[in-house]
Amino acid sequence: MRNVYRYADAEFRVQNAHDGDGEVLSARVADDKAHHGLNFIDMTEVPAGHSIGIHTHDKDNEEIYVVLAGGGLMTIEDRTIEVKTGDVVVNPPGGTHGLRNPGPDTLKIVVLEIPLLP
């Protein structure tokens, strides 16, 4: 089991995230529920002008976004808020959310999906 995941060592892949605008770079660095208790940990870069599309999760998990660098506009349900380096956003179970990077810098985040206890 790994305990440390380094952004610099992540193997990023280009993808379109939830039908967002443009493409993001994302690396799934962990998806081992047995050891971490998490569904997954992703490291993601959203270039200026690109987005993670608005999407809705099941009610059996919540997602946490940790902003490492840059800034963006996070949609949570029916509101949009500005997020920046150092912010942590909790997307609730069954929640609808998305993230847009209006620029000019690349937005770097870590996304943790946490299963809810039955």
List keywords for this structure.
mainly beta
Notes on the protein architecture:
With 118 residues, this protein is mainly beta. 3% of the residues lie in helices and 53% in strands. The chain has one helix at 33-36, and strands spanning 13-15, 24-30, 40-46, 51-56, 61-69, 71-76, 79-84, 88-91, 96-100, 107-115. The strands form two sheets. Strands 1-2-3-10-5-8 form a six-stranded antiparallel β-sheet, with no helix packed on it. A four-stranded antiparallel β-sheet has the order 4-9-6-7, with no helix packed on it. Strand 6 (71-76) and strand 7 form a beta hairpin. It is globular, with a radius of gyration of 14 Å. It starts with 12 loop residues before the first strand and ends with a strand. The mean pLDDT is 93.
Rg: 14 Å
Q: Give the total of beta strands.
A: 10
Helix- and strand-based class?
Answer: mainly beta
Low-confidence stretches: none
Task: Give the SSE string.
Answer: EEHEEEEEEEE
Distance between the termini: 25 Å
Helix coverage percent of residues?
under 10%
Strand order of the largest sheet: 1-2-3-10-5-8
How many helices? The count is 1
**Major sheet size, sense and barrel closure:** 6 strands, antiparallel
Mean pLDDT: 93
Shape: globular
**Strand percentage:** over 45%
Briefly say what this structure is:
Helix content is 3%, strand content 53%.
